[in-house]
Amino acid sequence: MSVLADTMASGRGAGAHRPWLAVLHDWVVTVDHKRLGVMYVVSGLVFLAVAGLEASAMRVQLAWSGLHIVPPATFNQLFTMHGTTMVFLVGIPIVFGFANYLVPLMIGARDLAFPRLNAFGFWAFLFGGLLLYFSVLGGEGLYGGGSAPAVGWFAYAPLTGRAFSPGNSTDYWNLSILVMGFGTVATSINLIVTTLVMRCPGMTLGRLPVYVWMMLVVSGMTVIALPPLSAAQIMLLLDRFLGAHFFDTQAGGSAVMWQHFFWFFGHPEVYILMVPGFAFVSEIIPVFSRKVIFGYPMVVAASMAIGLLSMSVWAHHMFAVGMGAPLNAAFAASTMLIAVPTGIKIFNWVATMYGGRIRFATPMLFACAFIFQFLCAGLTGIMLAVVPFNWQVTDSYFVVAHFHYVLVGSLVFTIFGAIYYWFPKVTGRLLSERLGRWHFWLFVVGFNVTFLPMHWLGMMGMPRRIYTYPADRGWDFWNLVASLGVLFQGAAILVFLVNVVLALRRGERAGNDPWDAWTLEWSTGSPPPPYNFETVPAVGSRRPLWDLKHPDDPDGPHE
Amino acid sequence: MNERGRMGMIGLIVAEGSLFAVFVVAYLFYIGKSLNGPYPKDVLELPIFNTVCLLSSSITIGVALRALRSGATRRSGVWFLGTIVLGVVFLAGTAREWYRLIVEHGLTIGTNLFGTTFYSLVGLHASHVIVGLVILSLLCVFSFSGALRRAHIERAEIASWYWHFVDGVWIVVFTVVYLVGR
Fold first, then answer.
1. Distance separating alpha carbons of residues A280 and A367, to the nearest angstrom
2. What is the domain partition of chain A in residue ranges?
3. B131 touches chain A (CB under 8 A)
4. B117 at interface of A, judged by CB pairs closer than 8 A
5. What is the CATH number of the domain that holds B175?
6. Looking at beta carbons, which residues of chain B come within 8 Å of A197?
7. A187: contact with B, CB 8 A cutoff
8. Is A156:A116 a contact under the CB 8 Å cutoff?
9. Number of domains in chain B
10. Containing structural domain, residue B48
11. How many helices (H) and strands (E) does chain B have?
12. Do B22 and A227 touch (CB under 8 A)?
C-alpha cells in the first residue's frame, strides 16, 4: 500500500506518512480530476466484483437442469441487480472515471472546467450505487435479498406498477438510477466544456487525441440520451407514488411507451459504453504498433456517425412488440446502417497494425482480443437486426450471448487493456507482464467458454431469465460448459488483483513514459503532480511527444 | 470563466430540453386516450394573461441586464425585481388554475390520462420557473447590495439564458397543452 499512500500524499505534496484520517479527509473533499477519476474507477471495479459474484450465483443455479440452489425470486433479483450494476455502476463510472483522469491531461489542461461539479457527479454516482445496494438490506432484511429490485434492468411496465411490484424494491431501482443519471449528465457537460474550452495552445480540434474526440462524442450522446431515461423514471415515480397512469394499461396508459422511452436511452447507452472502449484501443493500438492511427479523420467521422445514428436504432429492441412492418423495417435498416461506421473502425485498427512493429504487451493483447470478439458481437448484432431472425431468437440466450460479447468481450476487455496501459501513469509502477499474460489468457479462455455456447443454447430455444429448465431439452451440457468457464474468469480476476497488489507494493518504477507513447499525459510525472504540467504545453501535431523526441522529423508536415 | 459558463449553460439547456421533449411527446401521445372525463375541452381555459406575464419577463430581464451593463446597479435591481414579480404572477395564475381544476372539476393526477400528463408537464415547467425565481432573487438581492456590478455582466447574462429557456419551454407547453390538446 505504500505507493498508494505516496500517491495519496503527493496530492498535497506532503510527507509520506500522514494519519489515515487526514488522508481520508483529503480524498473526500477533493475536487482534483485525477483523484476523482481514480475513485470512479476503483468503485467501478468493486461493483464489477459484486456483479461478477451475482452472475456466478446464476451460473451455479443454471449449471444443470432442475437444480434448486438459488430460489426463483432471488434469481430474479440476481439478474436485475447484475444487469443494473454492470451498466450503471461498472460501465458508466469506469468509462467516465478514465475520461476524468485522462481528458485534462491529454489536452494539456489543469483540471476539468467545473471541478466542484465533477465532485458532485462522482458522489451522486457513489451514493446512487449505495442506495441500489441498500435495497438488499431494506424491507425483509437479508432474507431472500431484502427488497432488492426484481424487475430486470430495463424495468418493463406494467410489471413495475404498484399492483405487480408492491413494496419499495422497484423504487430503489428507480431512485438510485435517477440520482446517478443527474451525476452522469453533469459530468458529461463538464467533459464537453473542458474539451471545447480548456485545450492548451496548439491543441486544435484536428489535433485532439482520438480518445478525447471519442469521449466528446460520448458526452454529447449522454447529454441527449440520458435525460429521457430520467424523464421516464420521473413518470414511473408519479405512477407509483401519486397514482398517475403513464404506464398503467388499466387506465389507458401504455406499457409500450415505457419501452420506447427506456430504449431511446438504452440503445445510445450501449454506444456510450462501447465508444470509450473504441477510444481506449485507438490509443493503445498505435503505440504498440509503432505507427500513427490509420485514417485519423475517418476514425473521428465514424465516431460522430455512430453518435448520430445511435439515436435512431432504439426500437430494434422491440421487434417482438408488434410495431408493424414499416417501423420494423425502418429500425432494421438503421441498425444495419450503424454497422458501417463501426466496420470502418475495425478496418482502421487492423490497418494501423498492418506493417507495424507490433509489441504484444498486455494492453495490446487485450486490444487484439477485443477486435476479434467485437467482430463476433457485431456480426451477431447484424443477425439480430434481421427482423424474422430476431423473432426466432428474441429473449433467448442468443441475445444474452450477443450483448455479453459486446459488453464483456469488447468493453471489459478494453477496460483491462486500458488499466494495464495507464496504471503506470496513475501509480508510477508497472503491472507485471507475466501475471498480465496469465490474466489475459485465463480471461480469454474463460470468457469464450462461458459465452460462446450461449449462442447455441439460444438457437436451441433456451429463453433468458429462467431460473431452471427441464432435463429433456438437451441444454444441460452447454450450460455446464458455460458455468465451468466462470472458474477461468474468476481465476483471471484473482490474478489481476494479485498483480495490482504486488505492483503497488514492489512494482517496477515506471518513469514518465514507459511505453514510448505520444500523447501529452506521458510528458508529465507518474503520478502527475496536482497541477498536471509545470509549464503549459504547446502542441504542434497530433503526437506532441513524437515531436519532442524527434525534433528532426516532426509530425506536423505529414498531417 | 465566461466561455466555460456559456458552454456549461448550453449543455444544461440541451439536457433539460431533452428531458422536456419526452414529457411533451408523452403529452401528445396520450391526447384523447383518457377513458373518463373531465376532458381538456371541458375544463381548460386559455391562460392568456399568464402567458403575457411570463413572456414579457424575458424583456424585463433584458432591460435589467442593459442597466447592469451601463453600471446602473440599482436600476438593474429594480428591473430584476419586476421580472420576479412577473414570474410570481405566472406561478400564482398556475396555482389558481390548478385549484379550480382540482376543487371545481375534481381533476387530479390520478383521475385520468389527461390529468396525469397535464399536471406532470405543467408541473415540471412550474418547478423550473421556481428554480429560475431563486436565481433571479439572488441577482436582485446582489444588485441592491452592490455585490453584483458591471464586471459581472457576463455571468448575469448566462443566468438570464436559463430564464429565457424557461420562457421558451412555456411557448411549447402552451402550444401543446392549450392549443393542440384542447
1. 8
2. 1-30, 31-558
3. no
4. yes
5. 1.20.120.80
6. 3-4, 7
7. no
8. no
9. 1
10. 2-180
11. 6, 0
12. yes
